[in-house]
Design brief:
GO terms for molecular function: oxidoreductase activity. Its EC number is 1.1.1.333. Keywords: Oxidoreductase. It holds the Pfam family adh_short. This is Decaprenylphospho-beta-D-erythro-pentofuranosid-2-ulose 2-reductase. It is a single chain. This protein has about 250 residues and is an alpha/beta fold. It is built from 9 helices and 7 strands; from the N terminus they run E-H-E-H-E-H-E-H-H-E-H-E-H-E-H-H. It has helices at about 20-30, 45-55, 75-80, 100, 105-135, 155-175, 205-220, 230-240, 245, and strands spanning about 10-15, 35-40, 60-65, 90, 135-140, 180-185, 225. It has a 7-stranded parallel sheet, with helices on both faces. About 40% of the residues are buried.
């Protein structure tokens, strides 16, 4: 159960090598989270991530998990919940893909969609059912501002995040009143290894800033969190810019 500060005692991160996921885990461990499960494909990076969190004093284990293998989700994630209650699930996996390449490679484009949307729908529903069965918990879903409006530069990735965002919002409505809290997090461009070398977008943020916003959102029982917060007003305006003008904007 959550402590007096609203921090979860136990955390499951889907996407165990995610920089945002690990930044969030570090922040919550400092707030008394004691049990962490990192779910992802077995790899040296996943092992190193677990070791780094153990050094902070948490009980950390890795869980074999493949977003694309949806048939395995119920069994793989069910084992985690069978060990005991999970106070928070952070759905943090996803891939950017390569827009220029993926436009001419439908198989690669489909992989982006299957990872970011289909895999997330499957894992999200499995975790939602388990949280509902235990009667409490938070499901935090990492969406993206890229899903707010189609852009020429990243519409394959953006479309997958738009689908995920709507799914998570609807799931929150379905779970309203059950004791399960669903929170959608919409960061702007995040400075990370995945974006290294790319031109920095306006209002770029960091994994640590997103982690801080997630912690605050948990305390407030927020349903939607923008990072940075100013993006809420920016995107409210961007959504209504006429398409001919939008095409001319440097976004």
């Amino acid at each position: 159960m959550k402590d007096a500060f609203g921090a979860p005692q136990s955390l499951l991160v889907l996407g165990g090598t995610s920089e945002i996921g690990l930044a969030t885990a570090r922040r919550l461990i400092a707030r008394r989270t004691r049990t962490v499960r990192l779910a992802g494909r077995p790899s040296p990076a996943l092992t190193a991530a677990a070791d780094s969190l153990r050094a902070l004093g948490a009980d950390v284990r890795t869980v074999p998990f493949d977003a694309l293998d949806t048939a395995s989700h119920e069994e793989a994630l069910g084992k985690v919940f069978a060990e005991g209650d999970v106070d928070m699930v952070l759905l943090a996996f996803g891939v950017f893909g390569d827009q220029a390449r993926d436009e001419s490679d439908p198989v690669a484009a489909a992989r982006v969609a299957q990872t970011n949307y289909t895999g997330a729908v499957s894992a999200g529903l499995v975790c939602a059912g388990a949280l509902q069965a235990q009667g409490h918990g938070s499901l935090v879903v990492l969406s993206s501002v890229a899903g707010e409006r189609a852009r020429r530069a990243d519409f394959i990735y953006g479309s997958s995040k738009a689908g995920l965002d709507v799914f998570a919002q609807g799931l929150g409505e379905a779970l309203h009143g059950t004791g399960v809290h669903v929170m959608v997090v919409r960061p702007g461009s995040v400075r990370s290894k995945a974006t290294a070398g790319l031109a920095e977008a306006p209002l770029a943020t960091t994994p640590e800033a997103v982690a801080g916003a997630i912690e605050l959102g948990l305390r407030r029982r927020s349903e939607t969190v923008w990072v940075p917060g100013s993006l809420r007003m920016v995107m409210a305006a961007v959504r209504h810019v006429p398409r001919p003008l939008f095409r001319r904007l440097p976004v």
